[in-house]
Amino acid sequence: MGSQSELLISNHLLNMYAKCHDITSSHQVFDEMPHRNLVSWSAMISGCDQSGHHSMALALFARMPFDPNEYIYASAISACATLLAISYGQQLHGQSIKSGYASISFVSNSLISMYMNCRRCDDAFEVFSMSGSSSVVSYNAMIAGFAENLQPRRGLEVFKVMIGEGVVPDQFSLMGVLGICSETCDLMRGIEFHCWAVKLGLDSTAFIGNVILTMYSKCTSIGEAVKVFNSIEYKDVISWNTIISACSHCGDHEMGLRVFAAMMRTAPTGVGLMSIDDFTFASILAACAGLASIRHGGQVHAHIIRTRVVDLVDVGVGNALVNMYAKCGNIGYATSVFLRMAHRNLLSWNTMIAALGNHGLGKRAIEVFEQMKAVGVNPDSVTFIGLLSACNHSGLVDEGLRFFNAMKEIYNICPEIEHFSCLVDLLGRARKLKLAQEYVEQSQFKNDKVVLGSLLSACRLHGDIEIGEWVARELLRHHETSSSSPYVLLSSLYAVDGRWEGVAGAWKMLKGSGVKKDPGHSLIEVKGVIEKFTVGRFSHPLAEEIMNALSSLSWAVSEVSV
């Protein structure tokens, strides 16, 4: 129609391409315009920022022949926030103050986000304080910024000020404060904000309901999490994933499997097989691993094979499969899945090393570590926990010492309590108790109850009364222990040496401490049902039949022995 050269039409075309994230076409229209006004530059800079071309947005801002307006300032400052360009952002802040735009709400909100992204919380708070009457968006930016910068208390204080000023919170306000409660495991405040969500009618929405779910999960309140899940009117895939993950986090893996089964049955109502994503699979495989149920884990794996292209299986799902098979005792399947993974990250290698180590295949774990280094993946702290544990289970003392020393010398990784516990346990199992004691005495963890407990356990195993008594004294002197383990181990140590007065003394100390010994239990899977048997309890409905069967087996074994 020949109207493209008209400024109004060109601006609309430019804006249309920019809003559709087609920056190439938008830039072409912009370059071909014979005349451009402030709207043209504003649309182009805003489009570049919103499409992720932040450097291009700032380059256009620098070339612009007009004085910027509030919209251009907001877009340019937003680009600085993403690029963490604090120096350039401060210059824009100064220009916006001179031109009188800094107090306009969306300019000040962009400044707050920019300073928060650059970890300049005090500067963000100064902008917030100088902005006059703040909107809910300003409060939300402050709450989210403080949460991201690990200053949760200040975020909660802003919410309190917001309520005091009569500003009604919205879904983003509640998302921010509930997220803070999740990270700090502050259940009481979380319940308070849950009440706010109910009051505002937002608790039944998936957006807020999912955040409340996460909060209760992090606070290990699975009962409340289930209530919130049931109250969500239209559950999305995130709702299902969150409750499955919550069940695993709280140790109720059987409920996680039931929820997954319910999720699978909802296919006709919209959340069906096509909605199940990689996070769903990773979460339910973690539940299968927690139950050591290869039957359920194998079914999930089969479903993944049927519905996913093998080479495109997410690396997180692959890692979960390796972990599940390893924890179910099938290291062969775990290895097969690992070898078939098209892509592996550090977690993949760490999972495989730990799996081999837990199955007593220490030398193979070391081989996998060497392969990891060969492909250019650098180990982290978790890698060495797996290696030390592998050496521990396989009795590879020299290799374990070599890896422990290499952490600091070669990889500049400071050993943490988990590494030191593995080392002490490794030396203890190898009967090198004196060397283990020397490491303990020279370590910053010499008073840690986990380290001392590992050494005491080794002393009990090898009957070393002298070092065992020293460890027990240190353990009881430094810790008002709430566990019965030190007393039980010390009692067993005396019993091995026939020192019955010592046994009586250890049990007397246990009784005097007020600590109760937790009864041991075993889990077995029978026809898909997990059965739990606890020492000293005979409440199982088939207890009489089980006892008769055990008596028959004991008789049969005695007959064979004779």
From TrEMBL:
One of its GO terms (biological process) is RNA modification. GO terms for molecular function: RNA binding. The keyword Repeat applies. Gene3D superfamilies: Tetratricopeptide repeat domain. InterPro entries: E_motif, PPR_At4g14850-like_plant, PPR_rpt, TPR-like_helical_dom_sf. Keywords: Repeat. PPR repeats lie at residues 135-169, 236-266, 345-379. NCBIfam families: PPR. This is Chlororespiratory reduction 21.
